[in-house]
Amino acid sequence: MHRHSLTWERQETDKARQRDYLTFALVRSGVCVTLQDANFDYHYIANLPTDWMSPGSDDPPTDLSIFGQELGKKLTEVKKAIFETGQKREFEWVDERGRTYHFLVELVFDRENGRQIFTTVNDLTDERRREKTLRTLLKEVSHRSKNLMAIIQSVASQTARYAPNLERFVESFHGRLQSLALAQDSIMETDWQGASLKDLLERQLNYFPLQVKKLVQFEGEDVLISPNATVHIGLALHELLSNAVNYGDFVRQNAKIKVCAKLQQVQSTTPTLTLTWVEPQTRTEKPSEQHKRFGSTILERVVPNAVSGKADYAFSEDCIRYSISFPSNA
């Protein structure tokens, strides 16, 4: 048992005015407080949440009449136990509407009335909802981080496998990491919803010189794709751009590359998204196997498998054409 006092007060402070200000502060705080004597008779109730029944003027309030049968019975049992042990008790209660309340029940001492029961009730609903949302987000971040790390590990090992020397490995791996980072930026800015194709393409183009960006043209439907598709389609676009810059002649010819997106309903209930890359070329020779290697692996195997789609990578005398079709929600 203990007495409560202010942290500091002037000796000449008017007690009635002090009580008025403290009462005002209590009302503004939204915290519910109740005081009962040793017979469980209520002396006052402040800030009672609307979920419970406010006491009428005729009958004296009781735990059962205010809080209902289940919670009222629990509170009465807790208060009896406190009188026996002298130890404060606290618990949380979730009502039928899903609101969460924290109860703190303890003994206080009054010179005139002796031992009394002081109860404070805090509405923790918003706090618990924020905690739940945060836990969900942390799990999602953990899941996506593991997926991203697996992608990075795969890219690193495959890049090392096909790189002829350390310098080439560093250059290629840095570009692919940058592609993943740019895709993640798109995902973050949409609150993990994914990214639009046009925005994804523009972000990937930021890695390359301005003259390259001016020659790449987006056409068709600017579809919002999932986070998984954003990462992998972004990686495919990076590979196509890298190959075009390193081995193509579209810049020298001032010829435009067209990236087309088309959404169509096929047999399944989920629409199919087809993304097509058409890169003009005047050279007659095909890229060597050394040029294709891992870039081709990404475009023809890694990305299609990741988005449950199919891809076609073809070379002709006048253009390089890459097409990938996948479920729009992949």
From TrEMBL:
The keyword Secreted is annotated on this UniProt entry: no
GO function terms (MF aspect): ATP binding; methyltransferase activity; protein histidine kinase activity
Reactions catalysed: ATP + protein L-histidine = ADP + protein N-phospho-L-histidine
EC nos: 2.7.13.3
Keywords: ATP-binding, Kinase, Methyltransferase, Nucleotide-binding, Phosphoprotein, Transferase
Gene Ontology biological-process annotations: methylation
Gene3D superfamilies found in the cross-reference section: PAS domain
Domain Signal transduction histidine kinase HWE region intervals: 140-222
Methyltransferase listed as a keyword: yes
InterPro entries recorded: Sig_transdc_His_kinase_HWE (IPR011102)
Protein name (database record): histidine kinase
Organism of this sequence: Maritalea myrionectae
